[in-house]
Design brief:
Two copies of one chain form a homodimer.
Chain A (H helix, E strand, L loop, with lengths): L2 H6 L7 E6 L5 H13 L2 E6 L19 H10 L4 E3 L3 H4 L17 E5 L7 H4 L3 H16 L3 E5 L3 H13 L5 E5 L19 H6 L2 H14 L5 H13 L4 E9 L15 E8 L2 E8 L1
Parallel strand pairs in A: 1-2, 1-5, 2-3, 5-6
Antiparallel strand pairs in A: 7-8, 8-9
Chain lengths: ~280, ~280
Amino acid sequence: MNAAVAAIKPRKPSGLALVPTMGALHEGHAALMRTARESNAAVVVSIYVNPTQFGPNEDFAKYPRPLEADCRICEREGVAVVFAPTDNEMYPGSQPRLRGRGQLAASTWVEELQVAKRLEGERRPSHFHGVCTVVAKLFNIIQPDRAYFGQKDYQQLKVIQRMVRDLCYPIEIVSVPTVREADGLAMSSRNRYLSPDERAQALVLWKALNCARDLFAKGERDPQRLQTAMAQVIATAPAARLDYAEIADGETLEQRQKVKRGDVALIAAFVGATRLIDNLIL
Amino acid sequence: MNAAVAAIKPRKPSGLALVPTMGALHEGHAALMRTARESNAAVVVSIYVNPTQFGPNEDFAKYPRPLEADCRICEREGVAVVFAPTDNEMYPGSQPRLRGRGQLAASTWVEELQVAKRLEGERRPSHFHGVCTVVAKLFNIIQPDRAYFGQKDYQQLKVIQRMVRDLCYPIEIVSVPTVREADGLAMSSRNRYLSPDERAQALVLWKALNCARDLFAKGERDPQRLQTAMAQVIATAPAARLDYAEIADGETLEQRQKVKRGDVALIAAFVGATRLIDNLIL
């Protein structure tokens, strides 16, 4: 083929994509699949509610598992393979749900100790151990060229990027922007836990992030003032209880003395009994 | 090709083999390479003295690094590729030699918590974290179909087998029997630390293991008595100091109440300043 023909013929995407999910798929997941399809010959979606990334008092048992509806979404999005393993396939010879982290029969763990340290890692102590371990397993099983993660779980994205670099995985981690409802609420499988009133009040997370962005745009560079402003917005919703509102380095997730472009504002708050997270890059 | 022809034509081996080493290659490594060549289209030997598997008072600095001689051995054994990475290739952005385990800039670790718990894992607390982490990296970089480990480092072999199963690596771990000097001493890169007198006395490890085997053959099933007998053999060498002599389950390395065929006798002892290990399956 000569250069002129090569130039006008659209390049056929090559490679295998993995979109790791816990199911309960929504438009945010669909955006991951669509982005993956654009740059890959085939897309694998994994659906697995990973027990080891849930804390003992978290929502593992009630986490929604609408597998058939999920498969229809995958089919609609042109996904080649849905990989929905059993616990025994992911944790051979073990019962990860029933035991603490140290006593699992399947006893190999992957842990990232730096990016995972603060924020979600501090509030959910074994969460990222579970995430890194299950993602490493999925990488080893599927062996994708690229894997797609939503920016909604910002710290998870950065932990996985660090893990991939540290462990020399030949996999490109692609970040896909958060998909939001019409009013701005970040799409999340956990939104379906919210009552109509809680759903309305949940918008304070997005409002608080926008408040931080506006202050940053007006020149505010003191992280403490931005964090206080975000907390004040959260306090306007009676059903909401702030877990954290912080400004962090966009790569390391470390605390900031002075806020810079590319830093990220991160929020976690309970709305009723439901814990929601969101973030915005400044 | 019809069935008759297929039956008489020797099957060409396919697949890629990895032989992970720390260099200072000896006949034990050569046996790994030869075994790997028999069943694979190509063999990669990695040579990397992995800093994170050495404890602070161990022999990392003085560990022999005869890279040119090692390459000649690899060439002689028909190895396709020698992979001798730098620290920065294996631990990007980090200085693993200079810092403790928790403070590494490259902050992702792979740990196996069950098979690695006792014996070497107890005496060398971060050893297997370092081993698992570096082997996972090598697997991700080389992506072999099979990887070859010597039975001389028995617990390491079993830790890696468990790690591979737990993390769903599509890699076959092949165990190769220990190669011994004419008198029975297990080949080890650390043997070159021994003075001629220590070299002669080092044979007590093999003698102690044979003593356990003989007693087992005569019907002894009490692990304590076998362990005491091994310790008594070690005590006959004035330069030797026992670290441990134990009978363990051949897969889990757990302690035994009653010894069974397939259990393993494991010994670690200092001979002069040099720590040696050896083992024998009963």
